[in-house]
Task: structure prediction
Amino acid sequence: MEKKQTRLGSDPLSWIKDSRKEIKGEAARVKLIQKKKDIPKTKLGLKEGWIRATFIVREEYLEKIKSISYWDRKDIKQVIDEALTEYLKNRRTKPLPQ
Result:
């Protein structure tokens, strides 16, 4: 009796792997590294040069920002960054007094 030889690629889902354990492990490593560096909570998980802040805005502005974000297929963060970049582009600022 001959063994039946399976064809290559007979399982169409063989490329799918359970990555949940990998993500948890990597996230834990990132958190450990960040804790070791004593990074402030406002900068945890953010790229260099970014900080987390909370602002109060007018409801009408927020609705417009959300609409622009949706229709331009961008994050709200990107829309705010573009708006602030444009606003601050040619503005002169003095350093704050200490």
About this structure: The two ends are 89 Å apart (CA to CA). Helices lie at 20-36, 59-71, 76-88. The chain has a mean pLDDT of 84.
